[in-house]
Design brief:
Blueprint lengths: L8 E2 L8 E11 L5 E11 L9 E4 L4 E7 L2 E2 L5 E4 L2 E4 L7 E9 L9 E5 L2 E5 L19 E10 L5 E4 L2 E9 L2 E12 L6 E4 L2 E8 L5 E8 L8 H18 L7 E7 L6 E2 L4 E5 L12 H16 L8 E2 L5 H19 L2 H20 L11 E2 L8 H18 L1 H15 L3 E2 L1 H12 L8 H4 L5 E9 L4 E9 L13 E9 L2 E2 L12 E4 L3 E7 L6 E4 L8 E4 L3 H10 L3 H17 L3 H18 L4 H8 L4 H7 L6 H18 L1 H11 L11 H20 L1 H14 L3 H12 L4 H13 L4 H12 L6 H9 L9 H14 L1 H4 L5 H14 L3 H8 L10 H15 L6 H11 L1
Parallel strand pairs: 2-12, 18-19, 19-21, 22-24, 25-32
Antiparallel strand pairs: 1-23, 2-3, 3-9, 4-8, 5-6, 5-9, 7-8, 10-11, 11-16, 12-15, 13-16, 14-15, 17-18, 20-21, 25-26, 26-30, 27-28, 27-29, 27-31
Helix pairs in contact: 1-2, 2-3, 3-4, 3-5, 4-5, 5-6, 6-7, 9-10, 9-11, 10-11, 10-12, 10-14, 11-12, 11-14, 12-16, 14-16, 15-16, 16-17, 16-18, 17-18, 20-22, 22-24, 24-25, 24-26, 25-27, 26-27
Bound molecules: arginine and zinc ion (ZN).
Zinc ion binds next to helix 3.
């Protein structure tokens, strides 16, 4: 039975396991409906645990076939079995072996946790707690064992059999069956266990590590799609090389395998030596993937590979420490992508995503510290806060101690914790050790929910040639917690009328960074010959909301002259945001002129950056900036009016850019950052032209759709056209669907574009699309493409005044909950900002949340999100 109020698990209640496991020997006979798992666990009492305690193994949805202790069948009265596990009442007080035979039905596993089948391929997902759906186990990350896995299957059904570690044996098993034995010498927690069995094609290559180990790297995909796996394989090799040079971390097995499957709850999983991926983050060809897809594949391949050290070699003691591996690994993949691409452009992308996903989370009912202290369902804590704010904390640490000390601290962390299940304290201790400093105050970032506010004001005294900046930190009222001050690295500087100022001194800065570790502080700059504009929070040096009152003209000075690219971009964003929230014709005109000058001067020198400057803050970001009573329709109207105005005012420039970038059509597609940047600017230009002149825009977009030689341009044109009601749009959508009828990942883009059309008719369209033959509720990518894009990417229609948008998403959550609670709960988080909506919409949202609450037997995943969201 499911429970209404799930029990809470608390960090302060952590206790070491009473038993540990040395070795796990698995013999798994794969069968579509009755897979047999014969598990032998070498257990021993943990000296740090309670002597003589019962042995409580976790289990979920298992059929126990047999159980034996040290080779002898266990009597019925020696153990108890419940839906949550199996307990041995009086286990031996010495090392012993437990042999458990269980049976599971992978075909019936719709939760996609544990062992399941995706398009006929056997695969697993064990993080956070899926291994207990394979066998009874101490399914917690601080129990680490050495695994040997024998896999056996029908050769026709599963010619490829993959496990963790290295292949040590393979052969025939008779009756059309074959086997493979995999051994992983590195002790690991159960959440890193994986197996794959199926018909798969592969691409592979070799890599030699800095230690001279020869590795075979392979990417496995659906047969026939091998030609779409090359980019992912290349990203594997680049990741391996980068982790050696950037962090001194070599790979540690003879093989590294990546497998793409089409049904996957999340993005990908770092199982030891056998990463399993959502195929969306592996498969790419110019015809089917966009520049954004290529970049995401590169980042996620890197992320999972980097986990081999930050996650696998050093794992987490308990799930409260999730940011220890996720925040750190996101930081590492961001650094990798920045090295592979344009660092400033990538930084802007990181911050946009942080603001779009993490800031609202941190300001709403689902807010939690980067290291939570309590959870009901851990799978609901794979959040933007743990991942992305977690990464920002690591970045701040590097800023505070400097790159050399940071690298030394990382080396120390890996050395001290290799083979261990560690904590955030262990991580910080490594840096404290190498710097000789104390990071106790800095550690507050892990405990404090909410986005801090940083308020800055400046004063200039011409006579004294002196500029004084006053900085103050505070926690926002809603949701913030007061407490001792945070340690906030604030990168800043002063900008003169025509560029950097010379002869300025400021002893309070080190490498351009001021460390605000008090509630407030004053910084004095001397030798300031002219009235400067302060450029604060350069490179977004801390995850805070900056309040700094500048005029549009001052901001335009930053756009033109700041040495920090991030703040140049930010300045334009700030002006645009104010114009969305508080429209004004004269100021819009002045903004357009400043953008025009910027485009003339440098658009073609750095097209990717220019495209970002032209991209207005999203409706979500504008909503986030409204104190309360959000009316999504008003925000939408204001933003579209601003777009239209800029499109008209900048028209001649945009045409020139379009023409200058047109030769791109004649060169073969390459996904590299500079080619992608040129495409993004050209597509941004088309989009703005269309905003100002929809008729021309529709015609040009339709032409572009016809002539495009790659998915990036085709999809951009379709997205532009999708915003212009009319026959051209409908024809284009129909043709696109016909052209890509056999391409699920491309159809996802088609679903997503339509789900985001900001028109009342979209709801009808969603209903229609849910009946489309290519739509299915059993595939998470399809659900996310249609329902997720609507709920998270269409603020006006999701939050329709009549509540029908909320209702549609709620019905999907309800329908999905019994088959795939993880994805259902994730969809439900779209309601996270409901309290900030204006009253009548908020009332509708609450009504719908109450409707969900009345559904009997909700999963723990959904019940947890619901309880926290309703508050
Ligand atoms: N560790 C995976 C990552 O790379 C995420 C897996 C989460 N899966 C889950 N069911 N909670 O980020
Ligand atoms: Zn991860």
């Amino acid at each position: 039975m499911r429970t209404e109020t799930p029990p809470l698990i608390r960090l302060e209640e952590y206790r070491p396991s009473d038993y540990l496991i040395d070795r796990v020997d698995l013999d798994i006979r794969l069968d579509p409906h009755a897979t047999r798992i014969d598990a032998t666990l070498a257990l021993y009492p943990n000296p740090a645990g309670e002597a003589g305690a019962p042995l409580n193994l976790d289990g979920d949805d298992l059929r126990l076939v047999s159980i034996a202790l040290d080779g002898a069948p266990l009597a019925q009265d020696g153990y108890t079995v419940t839906p949550a596990g199996l307990s041995l009442i009086a286990p031996p007080r010495r090392p012993f072996t437990l042999r458990l035979v269980t049976e599971v039905d992978p075909t019936a596993n719709t939760k996609l946790m544990g062992l399941y089948r995706s398009s006929g391929v056997y695969c697993t997902q064990c993080e956070a707690d899926g291994f207990r759906r394979i066998t009874y186990f101490l399914d917690r990350p601080d129990v680490m064992a050495v695994y040997t896995t024998r896999l056996e299957a029908d050769r026709d059904q599963a010619p490829v059999l993959l496990g963790n570690g290295n292949l040590i044996e393979a052969g025939e098993a008779g009756a059309g069956r074959h086997f493979a034995v995999w051994h992983d010498p590195h002790p690991k927690p159960a959440y890193l266990f994986a197996l794959v069995g199926g018909r798969l094609g592969k691409v592979e290559t070799r890599f030699t590590t800095m230690e001279g180990r020869a590795i075979t790297c392979a990417v496995y995909v659906e047969p026939g799609k091998e030609d779409r796996a090359g980019y992912a394989l290349d990203a594997v090799i680049r990741s391996m090389a980068w982790d050696e040079t950037a962090f001194g971390r070599p790979y540690d097995l003879d093989v590294f395998n990546v497998v793409a499957v089409s049904d996957f709850n999340m993005g990908a999983m770092e199982n030891k030596g056998l990463n399993i991926f959502n195929d969306k983050y592996v498969l790419a060809s110019p015809e089917t993937a966009t520049d954004g897809d290529y970049a995401a594949i590169e980042a996620i391949i890197a992320h999972e590979y980097f986990h081999n050290w930050s996650g696998n070699r050093v794992t987490c003691r308990d799930w409260f420490q999730l940011c220890l591996k996720e925040g750190l690994t996101v930081f590492r993949d961001q650094e990798f992508s920045s090295d592979m691409r344009s660092r400033p452009v990538h930084r802007i992308a990181e911050v946009r995503s942080l603001r779009a996903r993490q800031f609202p989370e941190d300001a709403g009912p689902l807010r939690h510290p980067v290291r939570p202290r309590v959870y009901a369902e851990i799978n609901n804590f794979y959040t933007a806060t743990v991942y992305d704010k977690g990464a920002e904390i690591v970045r701040m640490l590097r800023t505070l101690i400097g790159p050399q000390a940071f690298r030394a601290g990382m080396d120390r962390y890996f050395a001290d914790n290799d083979g261990r299940a560690a904590t955030v304290e262990d991580f910080l201790a490594a840096f404290a050790a190498v710097t000789g400093g104390d990071l106790d105050a800095f550690a507050r970032w892990y405990e404090r929910p909410g986005t801090p506010r940083l308020t800055v004001s400046g004063a200039y005294e011409p006579g004294a040639a002196r500029c004084t900046l006053r900085l103050a930190q505070s926690q926002p009222g809603a949701g913030g917690q007061d407490g001792p001050p945070l340690v906030i690295p604030v990168a800043l500087g002063l900008v003169g009328a025509s560029g950097p100022l010379t002869g300025v001194t400021c002893p309070a800065l080190r490498d351009g960074v001021f460390v605000l570790d008090r509630p407030e502080a004053e910084i004095i700059f001397d030798g300031v010959a002219e009235e400067p504009v302060p450029s604060v929070l350069r490179d977004f040096s801390a995850p805070v909301r900056l309040e700094l009152a500048l005029t549009d003209a001052q901001r335009m000075r930053l756009l033109a002259h700041d040495s920090d690219p991030f703040n140049r971009w930010q300045a334009a964003q700030d002006v645009a945001l104010r114009l969305i929230l508080d429209p004004d014709a004269d100021r819009t005109e002045a903004f357009a002129q400043a953008l025009g000058r910027f485009l003339d001067a440098e658009a073609l020198a750095d097209p990717a950056f220019a495209a970002l400057v032209l991209a207005l803050p999203s409706e979500g970001e504008a909503a986030d900036a409204v104190p309360s009573g959000v009316d999504p329709d008003a925000i939408h109207r204001a933003r579209f009016a601003l777009r239209a105005h800029l499109g008209t005012a900048l028209r001649p420039r945009l045409e020139r850019l379009d023409a200058a970038l047109a030769p791109l059509d004649n060169v073969p597609y390459s996904p590299d950052a500079s080619a992608a940047g040129r495409r993004s600017l050209r597509n941004a230009a088309l989009d703005l032209i269309a905003a100002g002149d929809p008729e021309t825009g529709a015609r040009r977009a339709a032409e572009r759709l016809g002539s495009a030689s790659n998915m990036t341009d085709r999809l951009a044109a379709l997205a532009t056209l999708a915003l212009i009601p009319g026959d051209a749009r409908e024809t284009a959508l129909t043709e696109f669907a016909e052209r890509y009828a056999g391409e699920p990942l491309v159809l996802d883009k088609w679903f997503a574009i339509q789900a985001q059309i900001p028109e009342p008719g979209t709801l009808e369209r969603i209903v229609r699309l849910q009946g489309h033959p290519a739509f299915t509720m059993t595939n998470p990518n399809r659900v996310r493409a249609l329902i997720g894009s609507f709920a998270f990417g269409n603020p006006t229609q999701f939050a329709r005044a009549d509540g029908a948008g909320f209702a549609r998403v709620a019905e999907t959550v309800a329908a999905l909950d019994s088959t795939n609670p993880q994805v259902a709960a994730r969809m439900l988080t779209a309601f996270g900002s409901w309290r900030r909506l204006e009253n009548s919409r908020a009332a509708k949202a609450l009504e719908i949340l109450n409707w969900i609450k009345a559904i009997p037997g909700l999963s723990r995943d959904t019940a947890d999100i619901l309880a926290r969201t309703r508050g």
